[in-house]
């Protein structure tokens, strides 16, 4: 298969092609001025993070943030503003009290959080911490009848001491990294990883581990254990949350479970391994919300004005939900705020787009891109069968932002060789902001995939990593403090121009070949 | 004044001088083997940190650690093992419970700790957080009568948002930095900073600020404020403690005061500034220990065996006390453990020193080098009058370790030009450990200064900074996890050889000119 690089393509496409690729100059000028000089990005981000709080799927925090967005969109004069159900998610959940400390060998307050969707302790509890050495369910037999009300910690023999990090927490992409991205070859579509065998093997192991874990969880629940302590990745007071307990309305009940900072976990583990008695007290209260199991996205529009083209749509979005141990500033209040600010900019400069512009703030991205997948399933078709709706053809492109607070440095063309040179042209005015890279590479893990899976051009921007991977992504330290104002301003400005270009362009954004259905269409 | 560099000196001193500078080769060999291959350093550090806990001056944690050290020294067969009072310190203090969280606009558990020596809250408290805008005591007038039982936070207008750090948290010294240290010129003794005027000015400002603060603290106490929130430097869940409240037996009572992480403080501050209501709950319990206000050092010896020289002493030490929000692993369990391990090594290899070797684990270093200063005042003389005891002449040298967990890279000769080449020679076998740098520079801030002030050669080793300045020094993250095993092993080995050399050397370590008395001797 012939491989193309972007540079080769860019040269092969003549300038004449680009005449139709631009929104008009005065519009671009106004976007830039409003975005860089009258930005409201930090006010928006403040509301989503500090004011609304953690935004776990279907939690009161997410509801607060959604209600605020509806009110905000309405006050800006957007149309068709509404919460739109995408399907059944399950129960909401939030923390009402977190308190945990060792009381022996001495008092020490513990940094941590209950795992999402785990229940309260039976009021304030106090117990010796029991070290459990068990890799399999049969290893648990000796503990039977001894754990009721007890706080337990598993001796993870493979757990390594924390290693010092000689690298900075916060990084930006270097020119050379960006150049490599720009030169990346297109990944042939449908090509599977060459190590599919290894992946299957890993998957089998994971399934086995998951089964063991489920059996152990069930044992713990039956034994009426007081609380389980879990190791949370991270260091220096930062900890990362992992997947919580099941959130389905009919989920099997689990034990109270705390994720605690690596330092606190290792502290207790070292003491227990040395035969020291460790005692803890804890008081965890969590609430479940079962009343409305539907999940919702926030939708709003700037209606198109062209007689023909207004039926077509440019979509932008980012997920609005977060994990529970912080206010999800970089994951993904940042992306949501940038997209909201892009809408505000376009509305404020009184842009009258040919095509309709629609923003979607997704929910339940963290549990599996549910909000965006539910939305596209409802509106555009079924990715399993590739039976598509009429509306699938009307979406010119979807642009997503969900890689933290870092400056936009360009865009992932997601293997769309025809779109790439168009984006290259659109980014050319942003040389001063360092945002000119177009890569054919795919990027995954977020909501543009839901569109891509249905053959709708879906893109995610390239962003400087900052401290996303080292400190903030799913951590207790994903707070407003992490937001880089200048980067976010610029991001909103760039996104707004992409939206304007896409809305004004004569043709829709070119599409890749339609993905093949993994399942045959149902009759 | 002629300035000397160490390189120039090293060249000018002929090799003949060094014949007497060495302990015998088999002893050095045994030290190296025991120190690097049979190390007990991590066991020792584990006891001081994880098992004993935080070791604030006169706290039960320090007492536990001291009792353990006495028992450990005794079990190793050291002599003259005892706790020795250095003078009156004041009250002990410890945390018995720490719980704080916002409850409005939503629930969020706060990372923090009570300031050392602050009192308990009046049981569990719950209150709106009141934003106080006041730079002077008169600015407080409008708050009179409104703060009883309330949680308050000062609007520090100069407080900056947290800035991203593009530098690594953990660093080691580069060769070029070490070379620069080695080339440092001697700082002429008694020379004051050229900016004494500026310093006086700063001091005056500080005194004024301190007076304002005291007046404000008194206002808060009189108003029976429920709790004061203080901004703690740091980021990502790490916070640094600062000086606490007075610890004297007759200290003026203060209000309960929490230091909370920068993220949590700024979170509340942003909300309050935006006019959002913030409510908090807290339950702080602290205990004071007034029974024995004396401060103690732990002392132990390996007695000298030479008929004449055994009256002379080589001293090593490090402070044993810590701050309260962690287990003080790098400040200074590391240094204390290294010094203890050095004693263990020397005892284990059955070293029979000519001079007596004495270890001192100081207390109350954190409040002003009180343990070491009290000790030298009792044994060696008064630095204010420079009236000296007979014993002052008997201490050949004092070696200190208190700059974290980092590898020893050399030693600060503290302006002692005659000692420097001796140390250079002693370090020459440690090229493989990267520990060969001798600098004439002074280093301050720790217990060797107490000796230096009385004309006794007192030295501190050069150590790789690691994360001492960025993450651990006085922070809630100064835990066992931060200890670098290999570095500590090597440090103990190097220190043990310094002790052996000093114990065996024909002459004492050469002395600098005696400091001049800042006050005339009392009659």
TrEMBL record, chains A, B:
Q: Which domain of life is it from?
A: Bacteria
Question: Cross-referenced Gene3D superfamilies, in alphabetical order?
Answer: Zn peptidases
Coiled coil residues, start to end: none
N-terminal signal peptide: 1-19
Q: Does the keyword Lipid biosynthesis apply?
A: no
Listed Pfam families: Peptidase_M28
Q: Does the keyword Transferase apply?
A: no
Q: Which controlled-vocabulary keywords does the entry list?
A: Carboxypeptidase, Endoplasmic reticulum, Glycoprotein, Golgi apparatus, Hydrolase, Lysosome, Metal-binding, Metalloprotease, Protease, Secreted, Signal, Zinc, Zymogen
> What are the subcellular locations of this protein?
Endoplasmic reticulum; Golgi apparatus; Lysosome; Secreted
Where in the numbering of this chain does the Peptidase M28 domain appear? 297-499
What's the main place this protein lives? endoplasmic reticulum
Subunit and interaction comment: Homodimer. The monomeric form is inactive while the homodimer is active.
Protein name as catalogued? Carboxypeptidase Q
Species of the source: Pedobacter gandavensis
């Amino acid at each position: 298969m012939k491989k193309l690089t972007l540079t080769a393509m860019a040269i092969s496409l003549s300038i004449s092609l680009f005449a139709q690729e631009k929104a008009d100059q005065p519009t671009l000028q106004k976007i830039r001025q409003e975005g860089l000089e009258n930005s409201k990005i930090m006010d928006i981000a403040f509301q989503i993070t500090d004011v609304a709080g953690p935004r776990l799927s279907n939690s009161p925090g997410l509801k607060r943030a959604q209600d605020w967005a509806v009110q905000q969109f309405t006050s800006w004069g957007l149309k068709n503003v509404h919460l739109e159900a995408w399907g059944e998610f399950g129960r909401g959940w939030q923390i009402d009290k977190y308190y945990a400390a060792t009381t022996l060998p001495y008092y020490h307050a513990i940094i941590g959080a209950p795992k999402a969707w785990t229940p309260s302790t039976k009021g304030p509890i106090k117990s010796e911490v029991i070290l459990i050495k068990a890799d399999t369910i049969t290893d648990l037999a000796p503990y039977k009848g001894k754990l009721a009300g007890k706080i337990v910690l598993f001796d993870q023999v493979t757990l390594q001491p924390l290693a010092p990090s000689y690298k900075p927490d916060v990084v930006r992409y270097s020119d050379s990294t960006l150049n490599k991205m720009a030169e990346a070859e297109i990944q042939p579509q449908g090509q599977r990883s060459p190590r599919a065998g290894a992946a299957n093997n890993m998957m089998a192991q994971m399934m086995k581990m998951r089964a063991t874990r489920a059996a152990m969880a069930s044992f713990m629940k039956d034994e009426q254990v007081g609380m389980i302590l879990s190791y949370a990745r991270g260091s220096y007071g930062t900890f990362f949350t992992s997947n919580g307990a099941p959130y389905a309305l009919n989920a099997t009940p689990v034990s109270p479970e705390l994720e605690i900072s690596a330092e606190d976990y290792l502290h207790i583990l070292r003491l227990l391994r040395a035969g020291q008695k460790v005692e803890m007290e804890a008081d965890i209260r969590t609430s479940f919300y079962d009343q409305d199991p539907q999940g919702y996205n926030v939708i709003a529009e700037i209606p198109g004005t062209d007689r023909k083209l207004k039926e077509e749509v440019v979509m932008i979005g980012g997920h609005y939900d977060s994990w529970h141990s912080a206010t999800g500033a970089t994951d993904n209040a940042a992306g949501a705020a940038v997209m909201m600010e892009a809408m505000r900019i376009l509305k404020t400069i009184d842009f009258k787009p040919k095509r309709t512009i629609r923003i979607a703030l997704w929910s339940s991205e963290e549990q599996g891109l549910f909000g965006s997948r539910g939305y596209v399933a409802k509106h555009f078709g079924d990715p399993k069968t590739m039976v598509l709706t009429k509306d699938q053809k009307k979406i010119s492109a979807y642009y997503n932002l969900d890689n933290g607070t870092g400056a936009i440095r360009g865009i992932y063309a997601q293997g769309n060789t025809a779109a790439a040179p168009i984006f290259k042209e659109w980014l050319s005015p942003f040389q001063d902001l360092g945002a000119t890279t177009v890569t054919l590479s795919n990027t995954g893990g977020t909501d543009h995939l839901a569109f891509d899976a249905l053959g709708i051009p879906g893109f995610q921007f390239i962003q400087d990593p900052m401290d996303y991977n080292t400190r903030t992504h799913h951590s207790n330290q994903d707070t407003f403090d992490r937001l880089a104002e200048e980067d976010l301003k610029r991001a909103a400005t760039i996104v707004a121009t992409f939206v304007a270009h896409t809305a004004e362009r004569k043709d829709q954004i070119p599409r890749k070949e339609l993905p093949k259905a993994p399942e045959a269409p149902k009759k």
